[in-house]
Amino acid sequence: MDKVDVVIIGAGASGLMCAATSAYRGKKVLVIDHSNKAGKKILMSGGGRCNFTNMDASPKHFLSDNPHFCISALRRFSSQDFVDLVDRHGLEYTEKAPGQLFCQHTAKDLLSILLTEVEWSGAEIKLNTQVNSIEFLSEGKLLKTNQGDLLCDSLVIATGGLSIPTKGATGFGYEVAKQIGHSLLPTRASLVPITVQPDRKETLNALSGIACDVSAASNGVSFNEPMLFTHRGVSGPSILQITNFWQPGEALQINLIPELSLESLMRVRQESPKKSYEGVLSTLLAKRLIDIIKLDFPWLTERSAQISNQQLEALYSSLSDFDISPNGTEGYRTAEVTLGGINTKEVSSKTFESQKQKGLFFIGEVLDVTGWLGGYNFQWAWASGYCAGQYV
Ligand code: FDA
What we know:
This protein is an alpha+beta fold.
């Protein structure tokens, strides 16, 4: 039987970070993963270029039933700390949107930095390793795996959430937590495209591929970012962001013209009486979308001077609360993250050790901490992995 100081289950973002940090402290560390490759989600993230952090990351960008939990780790390992790490390796990166740092070339460059750190630290990675059972014994934690038994002093669960099962996601971490009496916050797919109801799908299908700047609002939160019509419904940053706050059945407001007010639409009649409202909208919306709007408002092609207040009110109301008839989400199949997870009230925010089982640690997405879209989720993985790595 192999005996090590630390076993980390999950060779993803948080697990690799924790492995290097703890092995640099002189610990004998083994990372195991049931997958045939480490860091699969890193490779597919950010459209293949990994939005690896956000320079603006702060607790307000995270959702949790226990909002104070993330404060300490985000402070102890900041986005600047991660940037310093990748700078030491000469990673080329770019700021695509304010604060959002992406690899300049490919996410492979970032993964290779993490794997290099793991190698330099002396930690080992064993892939294709399935854990069949865990026993908490007085002499350590005993893991029975398909590759033999392992005994360790500290066990770190870094198995992530449920999104993208085809890339290795499982509910393993939740099962371990339940085994020792932890409570879980309900989980659901988030940062995920929204599907629309079948009767609305037919109309919206004609818009597939069109993007526009919208405001998506639900439960008192709104995001002014692009939305993309897809052949299943809607996606794009504003939609992914709002799924952290919206659930099927709740109100969702999509404003196609966040830059325009009813008053500004009315003023067009005095300022440009010969201009049509089709012309006004054409600076904001794609032609195919305007064609659909024209089905309900055929007068869009007429001179603005001829349009009544009542007509404009109807147009404004329709565009500022555009009917997408949301049905649900695409679920874990395409979601970027899992909302909910292990109750952080039962985990130390300093060490990430379970309050129910000494020597057992939870890090990363398996915990009930979920970031907004924009590099925040990786920052949580790095920060929690680094902080736990100091104590395992
Ligand atoms: P992660 O999922 O990285 O790793 C978990 C590891 O555990 C995996 O290697 C898995 O194989 C392994 N595992 C699971 N079950 C196991 C078991 N039973 N036995 C052994 N091993 C097991 N975030 C961000 O900040 N910027 C971005 O650009 C993106 N983009 C993005 C795109 C897509 C398509 C997805 C799906 C996700 C993102 N994310 C993101 C989110 C980000 O990928 C995610 O939050 C982190 O990878 C979470 O890190 P963890 O270490 O917690 O889990």
